[in-house]
Amino acid sequence: MYKRWARELGVEADVVSLPGIGLFHGWRFDGKPLHLFNKALYHILKAAEEHKPTFIVVDLTHGVNYQTVAVLYAAVAASVLLGLEGNRGSILYNSEPYPTEYRAGACIASTQTGEGKREELPQLTILDVSQLQTAVRLIRQLAILRALSPTKIESIEAGPELCRRFRRVATSYLLLASGAAALLFPNAKYAAVEPELYKPGAGPGGLPKPDDQVEVDCENRVVKYGEADEAYPLAVALHYLERTLDSFYSDNLVDFLNKVADHYERNGVIILNKVLRFTADQLGNMAKAAEKLSDKGLLRRCGGAIRLTQIQAVALFENSAELQQQPNEETWIKALKEAEEYLSKEKERKISERNLRHLLAHGGYTHIAVEEVVIKEGKITEVTYNGEVVTQLIQLLRPPKCESR
């Protein structure tokens, strides 16, 4: 019927039935506001992914009751995740009231009987929406990470797998916000220790669905919905954060850094944008220099790939311009000696003040972290980092905690 009414207004609409709360026509509905929020959020986001809206409209015409409150919170959360908040991304309105003399038949014929009525006072706690406020606040805090803005994320509780996802995603955004994007290269490998981070391209599945359990007890005229999933807003937020990271995916380091630099530019992080573009250019020149040295027989090519050791990678990075102009043995040996001298001062392989400056000046591509670089067809297709050094850096960033429950 609702779809027919919409079509008569020239609107093609989907109708979603949300869980109920309280007594209605002799039936007791044991839903919670969070049940409504989770399901409404899912269906708003699902429709948004299909139709790509530029704004979300919430009709509050019939008053602000538990259902419109839950839907309103869900619409706000969706607008945050979709990047629509602000600039009329969410529109709330009430229609004009009908004239006082207007009368219409009931939309639903009344079949209510005395059965199911209860003598006790209703529990006002069933309309407590503090969980919805918490959910929207969490989604806002996590969404701020995409803008690379500093934010203090409250301690989070979730299941072990969701906690692991949260820690990995939050750490990756902290590395991005610190300008250490090169450490997130999708084709990166880590020697010794695998740091806990999310690499673009790991690929989230589809939009997670909330639990949709419905149990109907006809004898007692009760509808139950199971426990409302408090972790669902976190799962949805992580899905969108992972999708943003996945948009940077590239199988060569230079293209990857340029994609991240575009993200920096869109979010007004201009200095890091310039640093990353400079580093991408320098790494591109490094790859070209390696190809020229290989053509001269000064670097070995195996299976179409040039594998650079740490010393070779340092020599090429710091002397790429000279080696492109003079790809000869004398210039190459000189560059290798300088690289060996540089690395001899960094035997401890730890994040010192000097190394931290170098890391931030080169978008996360720091010599003490690089173990091996693979170049194919003039592109850097793989980098092996020292996992212990990367882990040291992550510890400096103090990623937020998530307590497993």
From TrEMBL:
Secretion signal, residue range per the UniProt entry: none
Family matches, as InterPro entries: CRISPR_assoc_ribonuclease (IPR052875), CRISPR_Csx1 (IPR010171), Csx1_CARF (IPR053857)
PANTHER family reported for this sequence: CRISPR SYSTEM ENDORIBONUCLEASE CSX1 (PTHR37169:SF1), CRISPR SYSTEM ENDORIBONUCLEASE CSX1-RELATED (PTHR37169)
Domain CRISPR system endoribonuclease Csx1 CARF: 3-97
Protein name: CRISPR-associated protein, MJ1666 family
NCBIfam families cross-referenced by the UniProt entry: cas_MJ1666
Taxonomic superkingdom: Archaea
